Automatic annotation (TrEMBL):
GO molecular function ontology, one term from the record: catechol 1,2-dioxygenase activity
Gene Ontology process terms (BP): catechol-containing compound metabolic process
Regions of compositional bias (Polar residues) in chain numbering: 1-12
NCBIfam families per UniProt: catachol_actin
Protein name stated in the entry: Catechol 1,2-dioxygenase
Keyword field: Dioxygenase, Iron, Metal-binding, Oxidoreductase
Natural source organism: Corynebacterium imitans
Region (Disordered): 1-20
Entry superkingdom: Bacteria
Intradiol ring-cleavage dioxygenases domain sequence ranges: 142-170
Cofactor(s) listed: Fe(3+)
EC id: 1.13.11.-
Enzyme class, spelled out: oxidoreductase
Length: 288
C-alpha cells in the first residue's frame, strides 16, 4: 500500500472535509493588500448599494434574510468559503486582472481551491505519480513547449500540474489518496519542452452535500465542472500563468458552474502512435 494522507480530511470525502482542508491550506498564509481608505470606502459603498438594490428589487422577506444569515454561518462552519468564492467570484477577478495589462501570452483561468505549492519535481518527460487504480483509468500524453511570446523555448521553466482522479477527487482534499497523487512540478528541457503521461481527468462535481451544494440546488443549478487540468507555468523574468485546460466536446465545457472555460484553453486530443490519446499545447509567457 502506498502512503495515505487522511490528516486534513478525516475519513469521508465530504464537502465539510474538503472545505475545511481548503480553508486550512488557505490560512497557511498571511494575506495583505495596500488598499487605501479612500478606495476601501468606494468599494464598500458600491458593494452595500448593490446589496441594497437587490434587496429592494426583489423585496427580500425576513424569512429569506434569516435563511441567508444561517447559510453564511454554515458556509464558514463547513470551511466552504474557498469553494464558493472560487466557483462564483474568482473568474471575474481573474478576467479583470488579465485585462489590466496588455498581455498577449497564454490566457489564464481560475486557480480554484485545491492548488498545493511545492509538488515534487519531475523531469521534462515523465509520468505523473499515480496509484495502481489510476493506471486503470484512460491515460493521456500531454506535451508541448514553454516559450516567450516570440516562440523561443524557455529551458528550465516549471510546469506545475494538478488535477482530480477519475472519480473527481484531488489528493490532499479527499481521504485515502497518496499526498502527491496527480500533482507534480515538471521542469522543461533545454528547448522548453515537456511530455507528461497522466490520467485523463473526468468531469468534476463540486462537493454538493454542503452549503455550496445547497445554494446550487436552491436555484435549480448543477454542480458540475468540465474535466480539466490545472497548470501553473513559471520562469524567472516572465509573467507566471495560472490556468486550466479542457477537452473539446466534453460534458459541461459549455456550461461550467465556475464559468472558467475560455475557447483558447480547449484541447483536442487524438490517438497517438503509442495507442494513447495525445495532445500538444504550448504556453507563451509574457515578459513580467
Ligand atoms: C472548485 C473545484 C475545482 O476543482 C475547481 O477547479 C474550481 C472550483 C470548487 O470546488 O470550488
Ligand atoms: Fe479543479
Amino acid at each position: 500500500m502506498s502512503e495515505v494522507n487522511t490528516t486534513q480530511t478525516g475519513q469521508d470525502p465530504t464537502a465539510k472535509g474538503s472545505g475545511n482542508a481548503a480553508t486550512a491550506a488557505f490560512q497557511n498564509h498571511i494575506y495583505k493588500s495596500d488598499t487605501s481608505k479612500e478606495r476601501a470606502n468606494e468599494i464598500y459603498t458600491d458593494l452595500l448599494k448593490a446589496i441594497a438594490d437587490v434587496a429592494h428589487k426583489h423585496q427580500v422577506t425576513y424569512d429569506e434574510y434569516r435563511v441567508l444569515k444561517d447559510w453564511m454561518i454554515k458556509v464558514g462552519e463547513y470551511g466552504e468559503w474557498p469553494l464558493w468564492l472560487d466557483v462564483f467570484v474568482e473568474h471575474e477577478i481573474e478576467e479583470i486582472n488579465y485585462n489590466r495589462h496588455d498581455y498577449t501570452g497564454t490566457k489564464g483561468s481560475i486557480e480554484g481551491p485545491y492548488y498545493v505549492p511545492d509538488a515534487p519535481e519531475l523531469p521534462w518527460k515523465t509520468t505523473m505519480p499515480m496509484r495502481e487504480s489510476d493506471k486503470q483509468s484512460e491515460q493521456l500524453i500531454f506535451k508541448g513547449q514553454v516559450t516567450d511570446i516570440d516562440g523561443n523555448g524557455l529551458g528550465g521553466a516549471t510546469v506545475e500540474l494538478w488535477h482530480a482522479d477519475e472519480e473527481g477527487y484531488y489528493s490532499q482534499y479527499a481521504p485515502g489518496i497518496p499526498e502527491w497523487n496527480l500533482r507534480g512540478t515538471i521542469v522543461t528541457n533545454e528547448n522548453g519542452e515537456y511530455e507528461i503521461t497522466t490520467v485523463k481527468p473526468a468531469p468534476y462535481m463540486i462537493p454538493h452535500d454542503g452549503p455550496t451544494g445547497w445554494f446550487i440546488a436552491s436555484y435549480g443549478g448543477h454542480p458540475w465542472r468540465p474535466a480539466h487540468l490545472h497548470l501553473r507555468v513559471k520562469q524567472p523574468g516572465f509573467r507566471e500563468i495560472t490556468t486550466q485546460l479542457y477537452f473539446r466536446g466534453g460534458d459541461y465545457v459549455d456550461n461550467d458552474v465556475a464559468t472558467a472555460v475560455k475557447p483558447e484553453l480547449i484541447l483536442d486530443p487524438t490517438p497517438g502512435e503509442s495507442g494513447l490519446d495525445e495532445v500538444t499545447y504550448n504556453f507563451a509567457l509574457d515578459k513580467s
